[in-house]
Amino acid sequence: MCGEGVPDFYAKQALKRNNYCINPIVDKLLKPIYNKFGVCTDITSFGFELDENDDPLITDCQSRDFYTYYLTKQSMAAFGALFTNRNGLGDKFVSYWDHVSRRFANNPYVVGYDPLNEPFPANPARDPMLFMPGHMDKQYLAPLYTQIFEKYQTHDTNQ
Prior knowledge:
Helices cover 45% and strands 0% of the residues. It is mostly helical. The protein has one domain. The longest helix has 19 residues, at 135-153. The model has no long low-confidence stretch (mean pLDDT 86).
């Protein structure tokens, strides 16, 4: 999403289908409300020029604050794919951190890492409870982080 997040090829896999805030019919009915509050927008509606990979140009993307992209249906679909492991995106994310943690496990200058900086709560349009304190953490982050931690625990860090 405008250069933020996962590699392009994973984002495109995550966005192959179901890029709706709720579903096509409800989204169409709620479009005036979405527009009023600036949520569930389509990233293509920003009118950004596209590069050779059909991604918005970073210079165009930088014309807005990055958090506005969290409110697009594409961003919500991508976070949802990560948290629900759609198209194996969650597994790929865990494998990435497995590789990183193996590489830096014995580095005395690394004291920790944050697997997901500023996560968005997937799709609060479908599940408004995700904005309730702790709900998103229990529903999505804790299970994902547990997978990463369990994978890390299988390493012999003395290698």
